Amino acid sequence: MINVGIIGYGYWGPNVARNFNETPGAKVTAISDPDAGSLARAGQIYPGIRLERNCEGLLTAKNLDVIAIVTPVSSHFEIAKTALLNGKHIFIEKPFTASVSQAEELIELAEQKKLKIMVDHTFLFTGAVKKIKELIDGGVLGDLYYFDSIRVNLGLFQKDVNVVWDLAPHDLSIMDYLIDKEPLAVMATGVAHFNHGLEDVAYITIYFPNNVIAHLNVNWLSPVKIRTTLIGGQKKMLVWNDLVSDEKIRVYDKGVEGMEGTKEQSYGLRVSYRSGDMWAPRVNQVEALKGEAAYFIDCINNNRIPQNDGKAGLRVVRMLEAIINSLKAGGKLVHL
Amino acid sequence: MINVGIIGYGYWGPNVARNFNETPGAKVTAISDPDAGSLARAGQIYPGIRLERNCEGLLTAKNLDVIAIVTPVSSHFEIAKTALLNGKHIFIEKPFTASVSQAEELIELAEQKKLKIMVDHTFLFTGAVKKIKELIDGGVLGDLYYFDSIRVNLGLFQKDVNVVWDLAPHDLSIMDYLIDKEPLAVMATGVAHFNHGLEDVAYITIYFPNNVIAHLNVNWLSPVKIRTTLIGGQKKMLVWNDLVSDEKIRVYDKGVEGMEGTKEQSYGLRVSYRSGDMWAPRVNQVEALKGEAAYFIDCINNNRIPQNDGKAGLRVVRMLEAIINSLKAGGKLVHL
Amino acid sequence: MINVGIIGYGYWGPNVARNFNETPGAKVTAISDPDAGSLARAGQIYPGIRLERNCEGLLTAKNLDVIAIVTPVSSHFEIAKTALLNGKHIFIEKPFTASVSQAEELIELAEQKKLKIMVDHTFLFTGAVKKIKELIDGGVLGDLYYFDSIRVNLGLFQKDVNVVWDLAPHDLSIMDYLIDKEPLAVMATGVAHFNHGLEDVAYITIYFPNNVIAHLNVNWLSPVKIRTTLIGGQKKMLVWNDLVSDEKIRVYDKGVEGMEGTKEQSYGLRVSYRSGDMWAPRVNQVEALKGEAAYFIDCINNNRIPQNDGKAGLRVVRMLEAIINSLKAGGKLVHL
Amino acid sequence: MINVGIIGYGYWGPNVARNFNETPGAKVTAISDPDAGSLARAGQIYPGIRLERNCEGLLTAKNLDVIAIVTPVSSHFEIAKTALLNGKHIFIEKPFTASVSQAEELIELAEQKKLKIMVDHTFLFTGAVKKIKELIDGGVLGDLYYFDSIRVNLGLFQKDVNVVWDLAPHDLSIMDYLIDKEPLAVMATGVAHFNHGLEDVAYITIYFPNNVIAHLNVNWLSPVKIRTTLIGGQKKMLVWNDLVSDEKIRVYDKGVEGMEGTKEQSYGLRVSYRSGDMWAPRVNQVEALKGEAAYFIDCINNNRIPQNDGKAGLRVVRMLEAIINSLKAGGKLVHL
């Protein structure tokens, strides 16, 4: 039995706790949160477990195997480091850390201690992302051309992070998983409309090898909620709309192929088009976090490396850092 | 009666001809096109008018008052210049010219000759854009925050221009009209996936004074056609979907206002949100080109300056030139 | 403090229990369900309360003021009658009873005993239905022309009721509330495609005074889920789509007015059309059952008659009975 | 060369004329319309052809092989009969005639004279209906369960026909083509809200053998335009939305199958569900009338019987007559 301690029981923590607790072979035995009301709610659902306002006790507790860190990113490094030093595997909210160097230090520490890190890139465990991954890896889309994502809605503004740190980690972790290539460079533009000086609208371009381009549109000031990703490939193209309950993924048998054409007409085309059926594969409707929790327990029990390990977390943080640097430098191209 | 000569009778020319011909006080009396088939079609509809494969005759014809230039942009300057030198008002396809200097020369020439130039920014004459203009100028939206437009579809690839020259002039002319401010700088990223080296995917940011930001997403490789513009203002926000027949414009009584808040909670908010009704004003379904043709004839008869005059055309070309320069320089910020 | 006993803790019972328990001034103190697993789940959430597999104990328990009956309709009458005889107010699932005579008997019994009956017409407490009611009662729509509802999806087939008993009570209770007139007659057509002989597709017309017509389309064999209601009025018309999260209700400033026209053209019109803006009023997103539970407690404490009382339940059952009779008689018009 | 005379050049006539004129082997050589303006428009497009305000001349003209009758239904019979008596093939607007007996007389007359009748059931020649026919005939949907169509919009009210005669012929002809079975009975309900006494809202049920049920919802008082048909089959189900430009047809791998189940649980299911992918086959975007005109010319030249011959027209008129009878008799079941 793997004993899990939860640090942070605010908005997302209850979901993490519930899913680990329901995973066969795991049990939530301790929860900490500085807020008394949050702790009381935890106590109602998990009567009899250890509840503390301070997280230190959990980090050093003998009987905990896993620490799930569900706190703001600014506190991630210290908590994670202490947990690793005390021999705990860690499950940690995204973004992994506030900087590349922090991420690197934690990864190294975990390797020394032979401990697992899993960064909570929850979307990788949704039916939609799994299906898209399957389509890409199975060659259905062919070579990729672009990955274009829109993630906009009204707020929530946060005190200490801009819209990039808030919304982009979702897309960056999904993109990292699906494209599965090291990005070459990033460039970002954006604006802060309010007095706290944090961007609320931002546009991010990410260059990959082989002319693959990714673009993220993140916006806290949109009147409508949009969660749409277009992925263009040589063979097929797809649209993923995460806000519809059915037919989230539409695969279009549409495409363009370059031709050797030399004809010099006014509006001459050097490409040929293909426009065929559309197909919406059935997507399993599972609770992503449930699968993720079970997967982490399995990785620990069988000593496997999670796909969303510290290195995956680091890749996302590295992009975030470069995006922020590009924004600060007025949209400069930042090589990775 | 104002006599109009049409140069270019391919895809768009027939619409220009028809609308000028149906405008009271105007008459199409000559059409030229190098293609014999196009000329024959013109002859069927306008029996008895002058038809020529070469445009020179029209440019010097005594009895023509207006020359409508509906040819590829590369030929605009020479044709327009000759027309102006021969004392003709010109109606010219967008983009106005292939370069800023060409546009400036034509504007100066027209001023000397006291002739009108109207650049065919057709969208300004649609019910949708007129309604949005009315909402902005009437203060309904309040101060603008952003203008975010997506114009993507599958092809058509063109031989000599990239996706920016093909699709962005629409958005740039609309944006120029609606925002009505001089842009400060542009930045663009993009990729060419085919061997002709012309970008088929591009992302453009345009900075305006007062933190207004505009962004255009243009893509020839999208499986779905999207024509959506989000405009965020301090008081209201709107979404314009040009592909639906009804309710093209939705105005949301949603917004965010900055507060002086100093509270330092973990996820503290320093803004307040407003979320109310949505309202879709009725949009007149008029043929934009019909209104535009009538407006041009009126500007000539009453010696008025068209809103979409040479200077408006120049502003769009100046942005296009800067966007191309930014793309060529790997996404450099180009000041205007 | 009002003590509530819940009878039936299957699919919907847990929601009823939770909402009554969270209502100030009320408390769930007993739950019965024949299924041991259901009882165990109840025990986890309400530790220490009375749990019984048989409902009789609850019906005669001294310390219970309200019995919530969340069981299949076939058992409603016996349970409700016993509860009333034992002096309990009853909250009862829709449809109220399996027959008109049962409903009438319960209403009479409750009146004698001065007890309240509330039939769980949950939809009446949604933000959408409340808003529509407000629009109709406020005269915004003008005189009603029609009420046209579609409620279709794939299954779930039930053992002992047809699609009418399963799906139509929702629409009938909403319609009864909104139109607020006694229907004159019903007529229904339908088919049973499977061997249990219960209709899985049915179409119901209901005639009201003043030429108001209602129509319900209920179908267990639809590949897509549709929950759309059109309501036409003299002044405005509205569309309610319950499956979208935003803009559930759209009010159209569209209409037709009869004219005295005598002109005898081939396709002459004797009506005039009006086509204006569309407006989507903000709809409160509340948990309907929460408001309903609080309303019932308030009705008991302040001796008010619930709008969804036994008589409302009876009106729905009377229509159901007539619809079934019409179906059985091959679509005969059944007067009410 | 087959010479075609067009009778009626109002709203639809110009389309019929243009398509016959563009069909290889056919030529429009005469047009009649009582309205001088309509005739003038015809003259502009077909300079030099015979134009008459009265149709008699055309009906007896030696050099006409086909008469296309594009007039209100009330005039169909007389014109068609005269045309047939004068040895002309006829192409005639739907609905074929104003009564069953008229249709029967025309069919008999055409048979005697060895002439063709084609009733303009245009929808049968759309890419969408052809694709659905292919799916049904190819067994993709399996045995049909139901055909459920909604055709609603605001107006246009007509002087002498109700909403059934105006809108239902579309659905009836499509249904007749797709289901390809003789209906057993019809039943209709509806209401007239304006003083001319013609129904503006109607609901029609049509019973076919083997428990196939069809339902049509036609309404002139809807704030939104809807053109949606659901077709349920044993193997697959489809939704046809004619108002979208792409993905008009969606085929769902969803279904229900009856089982022998005897289990007597409270909410026991006796069916099994299947829920899989969705697939939107590419639909050819052709001008239906173009294909239809070519097909008629081909039927004449090669002495083939059109699928939409007089008998198809009669089947539609027979259903219309029965529907009207059912409406008049207050929703009585009318056997066919």
UniProtKB/TrEMBL annotation, chains A, B, C, D:
<feature type="domain" description="Gfo/Idh/MocA-like oxidoreductase N-terminal">
    <location>
        <begin position="2"/>
        <end position="121"/>
    </location>
</feature>
<dbReference type="Pfam" id="PF22725">
    <property type="entry name" value="GFO_IDH_MocA_C3"/>
</dbReference>
<dbReference type="Pfam" id="PF01408">
    <property type="entry name" value="GFO_IDH_MocA"/>
</dbReference>
<feature type="domain" description="GFO/IDH/MocA-like oxidoreductase">
    <location>
        <begin position="130"/>
        <end position="232"/>
    </location>
</feature>
<dbReference type="InterPro" id="IPR055170">
    <property type="entry name" value="GFO_IDH_MocA-like_dom"/>
</dbReference>
<dbReference type="GO" id="GO:0000166">
    <property type="term" value="F:nucleotide binding"/>
</dbReference>
<dbReference type="InterPro" id="IPR036291">
    <property type="entry name" value="NAD(P)-bd_dom_sf"/>
</dbReference>
<protein>
    <submittedName>
        <fullName>Oxidoreductase</fullName>
    </submittedName>
</protein>
<dbReference type="InterPro" id="IPR051450">
    <property type="entry name" value="Gfo/Idh/MocA_Oxidoreductases"/>
</dbReference>
<dbReference type="InterPro" id="IPR000683">
    <property type="entry name" value="Gfo/Idh/MocA-like_OxRdtase_N"/>
</dbReference>
